[in-house]
Write a structure and sequence with these properties.
alpha+beta; Beta-lactamase; three-stranded antiparallel sheet; two-stranded antiparallel ribbon; 13 strands; globular
Length: about 290
């Protein structure tokens, strides 16, 4: 967030409707600002549908007593839905005029990252659906609130657990441990009714195998638990021999750290004695945000 700037981070959060006016402080990039589950589910729906804006609603359709539709929230046009039947192998054509809020490749990349949360991350033990699933857990300081928002190819759902007057949910409380089972139980029933399929990558995706531990590019023949195939935009493919840590490229001749020019010095303590102290801590040679 510090590298790209909080204005950029805030613009995306506001574009997705998570916040109306996001405070430009670094902590908010980790979710310190307040929002609602309603807004979060709507935002995740935009990841799931490839980056198109979705306006949440509690009323989908209103019909009069004769069955005529007088209001419909979804304004997309289905050109073939009035036909009695379609040719075998042909599906209905739906024209969409929804605003695009994110590049389709970027949306798929985020979806792929969140699939990893379910497959091998903080939700791997509690979310287990028969169709591909993506999502993200969330736990606030002192476990006062826990979250999980996730989606399949056609359904988005979210869970929030917390007290009206914030207090800890208990030692060991987490989004994956508490909200994961709630999400899983609901989605098991939803998948039975609505099904699901693999997330469809955009045509411009280029799949390249990388080492998920280091980010280094691997050959097309590589296999193993550390190997994942990720979608890359044309012109942004990783280079052989380069790996990533905390957002910085690292080559074989890249210095992991540089020695400080500052030296230790003797100081007088409050009791009149002496002590040796080191140089002041720096912001960090590589990155202070690699953990996130």
């Amino acid at each position: 967030a510090q590298e790209v700037g909080m204005d950029v981070v805030a613009s995306y959060a506001e574009k997705f409707g998570v916040y109306e006016d996001m405070g430009r402080v670094l902590a908010n990039s980790l979710g310190a600002d307040e929002t609602t589950l309603y807004k979060m589910v709507a935002a995740y729906a935009m990841f799931a549908n490839g980056g198109e804006r979705v306006e949440p609603t509690l009323v989908d359709r209103v019909q009069d007593r004769f069955g005529k539709t007088v209001y419909r929230h979804d304004q997309r046009v289905c050109e073939d839905c009035q036909l009695v039947s379609l040719e075998p192998g042909r599906g209905p054509t739906v024209r969409s005029d929804r605003e695009r809020v994110m590049n389709a490749v970027t949306a798929y990349q985020l979806t792929s990252m969140m699939e990893g949360v379910v497959q091998r991350g903080t939700a791997r033990r509690t979310v287990d659906l028969p169709v591909p699933t993506a999502g993200k857990t969330g736990t606030t300081n002192d476990a006062k609130d826990v979250w999980f928002v996730g989606f399949t190819s056609n359904i988005v759902a979210g869970c929030y657990i917390g007290y009206d007057q914030p207090r800890s949910l208990g030692r060991g409380a987490s989004g994956g441990g508490m909200c994961g089972p709630v999400f899983n139980a609901f989605m098991q029933k939803a998948v039975e009714k609505f099904g699901g399929s693999a997330f469809q990558p955009p045509e411009s995706c280029q799949f390249i195998k990388i080492d998920r531990n280091t980010g280094a590019r691997l050959s097309d023949e590589a296999s193993g638990e550390n190997v994942v195939a990720e979608c890359f935009r044309e012109g942004e493919e990783p280079i052989f021999g380069i790996q990533f840590d905390g957002g910085f490229a690292m080559g074989s001749n890249f210095e992991l750290y540089t020695s400080s020019d500052q030296t230790s010095k003797q100081v007088t303590t409050s009791s009149g004695g002496t002590a040796t102290v080191g140089p002041k801590a720096s912001f960090g040679t590589l990155s202070s945000g690699g953990l996130y």
